[in-house]
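Example record used in the benchmark description.
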Amino acid sequence: MKDPGTAGSSRWKAAAAALADSRRLDLYGRIITAAGQGEPLSGRDLDRAGTKSLDVLMKAGLVRDGQDGLHPVPEVFSRLLAADRAPRDESPLRHLGPSSSGSLPSKRADRLEVLHYLAGEVFSRYGALGTGAHGPETADAGPGSAAGPPGRARLTEAEVTGRLAAFTTDPAMFRRAMVDEGILRRSPDGSRYWLTRPRPADGIEFAG
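Model output (structure tokens):
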């Protein structure tokens, strides 16, 4: 069940509180039985205490007053269960499985989604397309230089691996996969990494 104070828990509390009173519980049982027998009770036939109990049951969504009398609302429980479900995880990290598994998804589209996401997370800490973490690039630094292309943030191997370690138990394997997929480029001496393919926008399909 959700933590106290959430919408789901408050609805559960209202239903439970409505049935916590023996008189209301008895009335609820009578309403269910009568409706099941095809002879619904009428709210007009209830005494003052019964009317007060009925009002609480109706406010909790457990009972409705139809044209032919009082009826239970069984779907209230399915709505309560639905409201209490944890939201579906739509993050790319859902592909990694429990406990940040060290393995990548077997499906390439899922694998690319994870790698693009993690590369963006690692480099966004410094500004993936802005001034590098180690100072501005020189104008003549080319893609094959040890520093990397101008205007790109570049990180050391230890920095990339260290930041990936926050997401997976095998950061080195993920770093190598990013290079293999062309998401990251590495300087010839292996001292610097930079982002070459920006993360696709939300809703863009990954090639399979």
